[in-house]
Amino acid sequence: MQSPLSYSLQEIAAKENCEVLTMLAVNADTGLAAAEAARRLKQYGPNSIEDKTRTSELLLLLHHFKNPLVIILLVAAIISSFMGEGVNAAIISFIIILSISMDYWQEKGARKAVEALKKSVTSKALALRDAVLLEILPEELCPGDIIALSAGKIVPADARVIFAKDLLVNQSSLTGESFPAEKTSGAVQKPSDDLTSMSNIVFMGSSIISGSAEAIVINTGAGTAFGKIAEKLRQRPEISDFAHGMQKFGYLIMRVTMILVLFIFLINIVLKHNLLDAFMFSIAIAVGLTPELLPVVMSVAMSKGAMRIAAKGVIVKNIAAIPNFGSMEILCTDKTGTITEDKIRLEKCISMNGMDVPDLLRLAYLNSFFQSGIKNPLDNAVLTFTIPDISAFQKVDEIPFDFYRKRGSVIVKHNDKHLLICKGAPEEIWKICMGKDGLASNEHQVYNSLSQEGFRVLAVATREFIPRNGYTKADEEQLQFQGFITFMDPPKEDAAQVIQSLAEMGVEIKIITGDNHMVTEKICRDIGLPVKGIMLGTEMANIPDDALQKKASATTIFARFSPDQKNRIIHALKAYHRSVGYLGDGINDAPSLRTADIGITVDSATDVAKEAADIILTQKHLLVLKEGILEGRKTFGNTMKYILMDLSSNFGNMFSVAAATLLLPFLPMLPVQILINNFLYDLSQIALPSDNVDSSYVKKPHSWDIHMIRNFMFAYGILSSLFDLAAFYLLYNFFKVSQPQFRTGWFMESLATQVLVVFIIRTNRLPFIQSKPSALLIISALLCLLAGWSLPYLPFAGVLGFAPLQLHIVGYLSGVVIMYLACAELLKRVIHRYTIKQ
Ligand SMILES: Nc1ncnc2c1ncn2[C@@H]1O[C@H](COP(=O)(O)OP(=O)(O)OP(=O)(O)O)[C@@H](O)[C@H]1O
Ligand SMILES: [Mg+2]
């Protein structure tokens, strides 16, 4: 049980604050004592929703048996042992055990590393313990803890609000309703069991949009509403370019395998009339065709990449996103804190209404000081500029800032009057000022010229009220315009350099900001970002999706964009471009971070942004982005090598098998030999994830090209088949060797061609020697080759159906291998000329 209370949330919502406090035996001023918290934590368990399948190592191991391939192999082993084929059964079992333990061990290493990385960036919760507000890990919360919530935070557990100030919460992860819900303290009259009706309960996983609150934890971990439906909520993320490519590749393999295997199976039955042989042989071929190591190669490649970039200050939360990082063609970013320094300076105050400058400053100060939402860099700049005397003002109410109105108001009491002070984007302030139609153009001019000089400008306006209770957005009208406050927000030192290097790497930058286009243009000039086009948020309303897709591609600056509009642009860009990245740090960036193929944020970002992002930059310099992209490209490159290798080698061999079944009166290789061959080949490729990648390859983004893969498959498949046929001819017609010797010969030839061609395929350089493979790859390939070639000469070779070949025959076979490699190199030139140059 995760809660000490036997009441449902619905019942708790109906109770008074003090009742809830008593029930949970906690004092609102001091919180729980540390010892009591520790006791409760032990009793109710950690506040986390574990993925149950992840907990048991045994289950994880068993998970590998779910692979259809392993099942086929198991069936084959069982059938073999029933039919008295003990050796076959033993070898198949050995291969199963070896490959499963290899997968498991490799994956475990990768998983551990990634989990450790993730831990380093989890957001903290604020809990009151022994009268001190402490930052603790969300897992350490227990029922009865008093927690503090503020804008940008994620609610860490189901909690009852006991104090709230203009609290707006986004609980769409639970209710699907993206419109913010207001939460208040105090008992709710007759709440229903619908989550939305419990307006004094905040739920785990929702995010705070504005305001602040104190709440008392009721349920933790699996006992929370989120925990109960966590399985359902584990939404399938949008399919990324890479995942999509993998899927298509999977189908391609499946189709070809099915056709070939069926063909070979039928031919064998018809021609050789032995069902068991035909069955075993077809299975071996299916195994040979399946890129069974692909998942391991990928996860190892990705986790290795993640570790390497972590050392450079880039934490990868979602490692499946690494290849997307590499194939990113477009990087959209917001402006403040990412392109510019996050330390904004207030420069000057310009009064437009005859008000004294110090008074205007005081108004801005009061607004920033009393607003309870997240203090953004603009507010911090106001608060640190001067500290005016505000003792004569008391806060009465607040109409919190949001990214749609782009303004926020506080209401203060002064000299027995209420004064509403509104501060925000000048365009939005003018909309609610008196005489907005006949607006003095002087103000516009001042605003425009300040913006063009690169100043960020906020406007301040006020209105007096006769004291009363409660103010709403509707009161933001008929305001008196007072003046501007302007800020300097210089670009980051390395921004220009980063833009330059990203451009060289083929990544285009677009800026999507809530700020105006004039300031943004100035920044672009400063950092040397060429501006193709400008689009304003107001143009978004009537534009259909397809027109937007074109327009978005041709635009560099998107100015005055609301969070939804930002998100829509990312969707639009995704339609035209393979991989779209988004870099941002605010509450308003969270939806776009989620939508993008790769969401990137910075360490100082709000929790919501961090939660939504795939990648977190822990250092201030943007240059680390470059490293991340390079790693992504390396991962992509090495995965692609494996795929091309697998296709060219395996398919080649399988075409040959198909031909051999038709031409030869006996099986060209025994099922066991095929399995050993395939196993040794796989083993030789295990070092691929850490292989070097050519510097010319990482210069531009790459992405899946299923046509290229298919062409490659046929070209190399046919080429290697031709050489297999040459080997067949030598062995069968020329040297007229025995059946076991024939199989031995083909085993040796095919293993060598498969294993060695990696050195040619792994690089686009001509000739291949120009590119240096990693030492590990050289060693593993040569060792596997050595193992395979010595196998027929070992004492137990006969058991596996091998018979040693005379040396001169081995010499001829080596000649075939060398000729094949030479032709593979030539073929690469041809492919290179026709496809790459286009
Ligand atoms: N604290 C504030 N008080 C009043 N107005 C604000 C405040 N913060 C932002 N605004 C207004 O809202 C607009 C949008 O906010 P903000 O600039 O943070 O959005 P953004 O999309 O995150 O842009 P950026 O790219 O600059 O980060 C700002 O240009 C400004 O006019
Ligand atoms: Mg921002």
UniProtKB/TrEMBL annotation:
It comes from the Bacteria. Its main location: membrane. The chain crosses the membrane at residues 58-80, 252-272, 278-302, 712-732, 775-803, 809-827. It is an enzyme of class 7 (translocase). Pfam families: Cation_ATPase (PF13246), Cation_ATPase_C (PF00689), Cation_ATPase_N (PF00690), E1-E2_ATPase (PF00122). It catalyses: Mg(2+)(out) + ATP + H2O = Mg(2+)(in) + ADP + phosphate + H(+). Residues 11-85 form the Cation-transporting P-type ATPase N-terminal domain. The keyword Transmembrane applies. It is a multi-pass membrane protein. InterPro entries: ATPase_P-typ_cation-transptr_C (IPR006068), ATPase_P-typ_cation-transptr_N (IPR004014), ATPase_P-typ_cyto_dom_N (IPR023299), ATPase_P-typ_P_site (IPR018303), ATPase_P-typ_TM_dom_sf (IPR023298), ATPase_P-typ_transduc_dom_A_sf (IPR008250), ATPase_P-type_domA (IPR059000), HAD-like_sf (IPR036412). One of its GO terms (cellular component) is plasma membrane. GO terms for molecular function: ATP binding; ATP hydrolysis activity; P-type magnesium transporter activity. It is found in: Cell inner membrane. Keywords: ATP-binding, Cell inner membrane, Cell membrane, Magnesium, Membrane, Nucleotide-binding, Phosphoprotein, Translocase, Transmembrane, Transmembrane helix. SMART domains: Cation_ATPase_N. Its EC number is 7.2.2.14. Belongs to the cation transport ATPase (P-type) (TC 3.A.3) family. Type IIIB subfamily. Mediates magnesium influx to the cytosol. This is Magnesium-transporting ATPase, P-type 1.
